[in-house]
Design a protein that fits this description.
The protein is mostly helical. It is built from 13 helices and no strands. It is globular, with a radius of gyration of 18 Å.
Length: 289
């Protein structure tokens, strides 16, 4: 159901972009992302902490390896794109942190949402520290770390804490847990609609879309390799966290380092990566053979 809704929302946003673009000018994407984080955190089970302690060494390896491998993959694939702004936009994807929505989609897929949240926070901190130097080497300008941190604190930090607290107070389960799950699904669909409304297609975007698909496939392969040997819930969290990069943060990084034109590819990436997340959730939610 999620995959069908994501595709329908993407088509609607692209065909009738006016409302989505108008809402985006009023920070609608950040508001929906905050709702996603809140809904996801509210469904984290009470016993997740002990499981995370056992997974901590492996999650550390995942975060560090992804921080090295993804920028390298993005740089290599960006060389296949012609216009410089589009090339720079692809590079910004590689240095972006894990997608905020990956936490919600991990929960929808029956994965370890708490592990996905930890990976999100850790990758965000690494992104803030490493994005500037990496993009300076690639020919961009510095990225304002304080602005990125402030935005992520409002969009990720506060909703995450509020959701965890509410989950403990209500012992989210049964109807309460189902309600938060529905909220997460609705937020994902609205997010795809908002992002698809920002897409402006041209001939140059055909090659760009192919490169972005190749980057998502490469990221998913890296995620599967890093998740090897883990139990299924943790494996789902690692796969989605590594293969889904935050298009909203990447857009801000691209604009800050290379100029507004470099943020243009991020709309297409946002739609494609959310569709991939929905597909991966559908596959992961199937019962094991």
């Amino acid at each position: 159901m999620l995959l069908a809704l994501v595709v329908a929302a993407a088509i609607l946003g692209w065909a009738v972009p006016g409302p989505a673009r108008s809402l985006d000018r009023h920070q609608a994407i950040n508001a929906v992302l905050a709702a996603l984080v809140f809904a996801s955190a509210s469904t984290v089970p009470a016993g997740a902490g002990s499981r995370l302690r056992a997974l901590a060494p492996r999650l550390s390896v995942v975060v560090i390896t992804a921080a090295v491998a993804l920028p390298a993959a993005a740089f290599a694939l960006s060389r296949l794109v012609g216009p410089a702004p589009l090339r720079d936009g692809v590079l910004a994807i590689g240095v972006a942190p894990a997608e905020v929505a990956s936490v919600a989609i991990t929960g929808i897929a029956g994965g370890e949402a708490a592990a996905a949240a930890v990976l999100l926070i850790a990758s965000t901190l690494i992104c803030v520290a490493a994005a500037g130097p990496i993009l300076l080497v690639a020919g961009g300008s510095g990225v304002p770390a304080t602005r990125v941190l402030a935005t992520l604190a409002l969009v990720v930090g506060l909703p995450l804490l509020a959701g965890l607290l509410l989950g403990r107070l209500t012992a989210a389960g049964g109807r309460a847990g189902d309600g938060f799950q529905v909220l997460a699904i609705v937020a994902v669909v609205i997010l795809v609609w908002l992002v698809s409304g920002q897409v402006r297609l041209s001939a140059a975007y055909v090659a760009l879309a192919a490169v972005i698909v190749a980057l998502i496939v490469t990221s998913a392969a890296i995620g599967l390799l890093l998740a090897r040997g883990l139990q299924r819930p943790a494996r789902t969290a690692v796969l989605l966290s590594v293969s889904m990069r935050d298009f909203a943060v990447a857009s801000g990084i691209a604009a800050a380092a290379f100029g507004p034109a470099a943020a243009a590819p991020l709309g297409i990436y946002g739609v494609l990566v959310m569709a991939w997340g929905a597909l991966a959730a559908r596959l992961a939610a199937r019962p094991p053979a």
